[in-house]
Amino acid sequence: MVILDGEHLTFDQVEKVLNDGEMIKASEESMARVVKSREAVEKIVNEGRVIYGITTGFGKLSDVYIPSEDVEDLQINLIRSHACGVGDPFPEKVSRAMMLLRANALLKGFSGVRPVLIERLIELVNSNIHPVIPQQGSLGASGDLAPLSHLALVLVGEGEVFYKGERQPTEKVYQRLGIFPLTLTAKEGLALINGTQAMTAQGVVAVMEAIQLAKQSEAISALTIEALNGIVTAFDESVHKARGYQEQIDVAARLREYLSGSSLVTEQGELRVQDAYSLRCIPQVHGATWQALNYVIEKLQIEMNAATDNPLIFDDGDKVISGGNFHGQPIALAMDFLGIAMAEVANISERRIERLVNPQLNDLPPFLSKNSGLESGAMILQYAAASLVSENKTLAHPASVDSIPSSANQEDHVSMGTIGSRHAYQIIQNVRRVLAIELFCAMQALEFRDKDKMAERTKAVYLKGREQVPAVEHDRVFSKDIEKLAGWLLTNEWKQLFLESLKL
């Protein structure tokens, strides 16, 4: 059971909720804060005080006073009008993360919602009822208004949900389970949609997959090094300590560990003096990606426990401040950085693929085919990798450098952080397939080496990989092999067999 208190949610806990179906509940202390914050909102309404979003309209309409008898209509109108997301829905895991993070943010006690709203979010997570939330339509400032409005629709019994593998009307699922729709009261609609939970949820899911891929890229590149009789001298600890980046030092150490005991690798000057950069500079390039991942993790960890709605209520309602914590710029920059850093993992991987298949760059059969000429072997696998890498270059263009004014120029600078997070996630899916292609080619190249000379760890990767796809005897439809390996890279088997035993 993961206990939410608005302050201490961790990546490990989020991963358990998203991947393992761990149940969640709110701490008693955080719910007590929520109650006090709600009492402050009700006092504001009863006193007729003019406070943004509680007794006024929204955005450019913030100067329009709303009498107390209309506050419920104000909130439901807000949700319905702002639910204008378009495009394919977010994956269920992202929708689930959005509810988890929104509940955690509201538990900080600065938002003025009733406990029942948070209880409903928790109930939906624990019941595996996930709102259908279109991916496109957020500017990433004023919060993720459109995506979060689709989430809020589900709380009031509208919109659609994913439940037991089916996309269904919320009303139908509620009726089946005996769940009653909520009625939003003062401030609650705004509190639900003023936040960065769409970009943050997508970012959390993306970085979790990115971390696993970064680890896998080291194991896969170790197989490539063996297949190409790579020079391990370049990974000597003294080289990397001389530069001083800890992440680079760590990657080099893990490569040495993967390759320990291998008779396929060489020392400097044994076959050649230097390897190409795509082999020699793996610690420098992959290490820089780890630096970026650590930065992204740090920002997401803060945002997962942040109050990002507006206005925020302090001192039992004596201080209600309209600020801009909903602005997604910190996450927008982090997501752009994530996409760029992971695109580089694919860039250098594609160069290693080229070295595996190009007979001018190795001593292996052309395109790793046993019947070169009659059969094309792995020739077009490199094309596919190059295509994915090129696509990533367009997706890695920073979304955060763009801004379009909205709400009659009241909201005149926005982050585009949700676009950045979606693009980062797309890049990561492409990276996985590029790494799958490298793994495929490295294993095939090793068919022409003495596999008994492989290191213990790399041979374990090879043998498990061969359980997924057989060696190539003749040309076949290779796309099936790549998708099989890419799917395997998503599984926990890697974590259990190859990653946990290393110092990762």
UniProtKB/TrEMBL annotation:
- In-chain residues carrying the UniProt-annotated modification 2,3-didehydroalanine (Ser): 142
**From the record, what ranges are coiled-coil?**
none
- Any keyword Cytoplasm? yes
Q: Where are the transmembrane segments?
A: none
Q: Which pathway?
A: Amino-acid degradation; L-histidine degradation into L-glutamate; N-formimidoyl-L-glutamate from L-histidine: step 1/3
Query: Where do we see the 5-imidazolinone (Ala-Gly) cross-link in this protein?
Result: 141-143
Post-translational modification here is noted as: Contains an active site 4-methylidene-imidazol-5-one (MIO), which is formed autocatalytically by cyclization and dehydration of residues Ala-Ser-Gly.
Name the EC number(s): 4.3.1.3
One molecular function GO term is: histidine ammonia-lyase activity
**InterPro entries named among the record's database cross-references:** Aromatic_Lyase, Fumarase/histidase_N, HutH, L-Aspartase-like, Phe/His_NH3-lyase_AS
Query: Sorted alphabetically, which Gene3D superfamilies does this protein's record hold?
Result: Fumarase/aspartase (Central domain) (1.20.200.10), Fumarase/aspartase (N-terminal domain) (1.10.275.10)
Query: What are the subcellular locations of this protein?
Result: Cytoplasm
What catalytic activity does the UniProt entry give for this protein? L-histidine = trans-urocanate + NH4(+)
Keywords (alphabetical) are: Cytoplasm, Histidine metabolism, Lyase
Q: Which NCBIfam families match?
A: hutH (TIGR01225), PRK09367.1 (NF006871)
Matching PANTHER family: HISTIDINE AMMONIA-LYASE (PTHR10362)
The family line of this record is: Belongs to the PAL/histidase family.
Return the protein name: Histidine ammonia-lyase
